[in-house]
Amino acid sequence: MSLEVVDVHKLFLHEETVARNLEKLKDSFMRCKILSNPIFVDKHTNVVLDGTHRVRCFQELGFKYILASMVNYRDDRIKLKNWYRVLGGDPTLIRSLALDFGFRKVSNTKINLEKNPGGDLIVAVNGELFIYDGSDDIYEKYCYLREYEKTLYDEGIHIDYVHEDEALAAYKDGKNIIITPKLSKDDVVFYATRGKVFPPKTTRHIFPLRPLFLDVPLTYFMDRGKHKSDIDRIIARYLLGRIYVKTRGRMTIDRYYEEEFLALFL
Fold it and tell me: Which residues are within 8 A (CB) of 184 and not within 5 positions of it... i.e. 6 or more apart?
């Protein structure tokens, strides 16, 4: 991993932004005037792995650069996981909408929910399983999920986005869930570099080390005629003035961090 200044207009996003979250983050940037945490970018493809909303904010606010943790996405220590959905509301309605959207009921004995080896899109409601097999294309499956989720939301169904284990535990406790198809790193890169973005809360990346609380002033990222290498040196000097602490991860600070280690700049 290396911390580098990168051009926000040369990055590829792989997920959509959520309008209300984007506006909230914009307001935060304008109030605080700092970038607390760097984004994560694959150094070989310029695909953004973590930080979609920060990139879009910087683009829309007129910044040219952003600070990124540049990583080798192919490194096995970088884990790609899913977000599952826990559904709150009338299970009869959830079931009916699944059937309306072409989900097919299948036997519970034919699918291992904990492994989902086929990469299926599955609605699990009231102990029944419904699978969508209208397309084998992973991108089309997620586009279909987007439409199903929108309809659920419009009909008053509450949707929580949770880790796989949390969703499966909720299902065992009688909750209704959506199991999302498993993506590969190749899928993420392939579609991102072709301008195709997945719905929000599609991927969850876990890194061996995550830098936090760098609190770099936003003025460093403006296009004021400085060369990128000059900005790199300015930010490097700024960070050298901070106290660096490496600590164990898998802990809650401002949110829960799944990383093995955290690098805190104090």
Answer: 80
